[in-house]
Amino acid sequence: MFNYTIEDSLMNIIAGGFYDGLMLYTHALNETMSLSAGRPPGKVVTQRMWNRTFHGVTGIVHLDENGDRETDFALWDMIDTNTSAFQIVLVYNSSEEQLSANPGTTLHWLGGVRPRDVPFCGFKNENPVCVTSL
After folding, report:
1. Least C-beta-crowded within 10 Å: which of 15, 44, 47, 123?
2. How far apart are CA 94 and CA 98, in angstroms?
3. How many Å apart are CA 1 and CA 28, to the nearest integer?
């Protein structure tokens, strides 16, 4: 949009997300106002934003039937601790709901071993073996 792209940084992503949200709202408000006279109820404007896809400054913006933003993401893996070099190993495509591995890449786990799904002591230290008595 406007022949402009943002550089990758946390602040730019936040500002870009705010901009995309504001543009989504203004388009929905304009469309709703053109269909009815006067100020439309907020709920009507909000529902007008659902089930919508458009190109924003943060990329393709898609809101599902519940109004939740579906977004693509990538999992980066540090491949060199000396240079802090990263590579993309997994990519999630939200429109296809598919997670795919980047060819020729592998995840590097700390100690060379994938962590357990549930930590030995549990997420809240609920394993009795880990609880110390007073």
Report:
1. 123
2. 7
3. 17
Handedness of CA 25, 73, 11, 4 (dihedral sign): negative
Q: Are 60 and 81 in the same domain?
A: no
Same domain, yes or no: 96 and 119:
yes
DSSP-assigned states of every residue in 26-85 = HHHHHHHHHHSSSPPPHHHHHHHTSSEEEEETTEEEEE-TTSPEE--EEEEEEEETTTTE
CA distance 57 to 66: 22
pLDDT tens-place string over residues 11-26: 677 888 999 999 999 9
Q: Would 86 be classed as within a structural domain?
A: yes
Q: In the chain, how many domains are there? A: 2
